[in-house]
Amino acid sequence: MDAVGALDSRTKFGTTAAGLHGGRYPDDSANPVLQTRSTLGNAITAIECGYLLQDTISLLHEAYLRHRIAQPNSQRNIRSVLKYADNTLLFHHISIASALLVLHYYIHQDRDRGIYIIVQFLLMNSSTPILNLRWWLRTYHPQHKMLCLSSDITFIMAFYMARVWLVGWIIRGYGKPHGYNSAWKVYLGGMRMPCQLGTGALWLANTSWWTLLVMSVIKRLPQELDRIKKTTGYSRG
């Protein structure tokens, strides 16, 4: 966007000095990224919410079965069952499903906003199929060292694009109608404090996980390469 276009956008959406909403933040009352509604977007979030709820039930049922196998004669209650559950995954599912349920309450009240941004954040799930493939290869076909290593590298790239780079892309998309051309400038000057805290925490968490993933793969890389050489019959002599 050129300087004239940026000025037009800022004037249109009330982000000049005289039009700052509340004296500091851009006025989003006409920002299409937040104000546009989408039946398809609502349907996608409903499907995601339904998936998370049924998977939560499946995780609890799995924990119940594990508890029954490990302690067949003991009394079962929710606390004892949760000891056999993947509580990190349960927290992930319950927290996001709860947020989506609140969203659909607002949709029912015809008060929903920001469906495009919410659907864009759901694109983070695009790295999950590669994660599952990586787990399947390492669990059931560990002898295919080259495939396992390839899945590691592919997952590193997919995780970065879907869960680290994507956050900046979404922020920049939100700020573009206001004339911002940098995600960092939007984050510092165009977002309210709760959005800054939430988005910043998400980006830091995803970046930390990605860094740990890269370090783990780098740590295993010499051993992986050595095993690949042995299985392919490669030798330096």
Descriptive account of the structure:
The protein has 237 residues and is mostly helical. Helices cover 73% and strands 0% of the residues. It has helices at 3-12, 32-35, 39-70, 78-82, 87-108, 115-122, 128-140, 145-175, 183-189, 193-232. The radius of gyration is 23 Å and the shape is flat. Residues 1-22 have low confidence and may be disordered.
Write the layout of secondary structure elements.
Layout: H1 3-12, H2 32-35, H3 39-70, H4 78-82, H5 87-108, H6 115-122, H7 128-140, H8 145-175, H9 183-189, H10 193-232
Helix pairs in contact: 3-5, 3-6, 7-8, 8-9, 8-10
Percent of residues in β-strands: under 5%
Question: How far apart, in Å, are the first and last alpha carbons?
Answer: 59 Å
Q: How many helices in DSSP terms?
A: 10
Order of helices and strands: HHHHHHHHHH
Number of strands: 0
Percentage of helical residues? over 70%
SSE class: mainly alpha
Give a quick account of the main beta sheet: strands, pairing sense, barrel closure.
none
Mean pLDDT: 86
Low-confidence stretches: 1-22
Please state the overall shape, judged from the principal axes of the Cα atoms: flat
Rounded to the nearest angstrom, the radius of gyration is: 23 Å
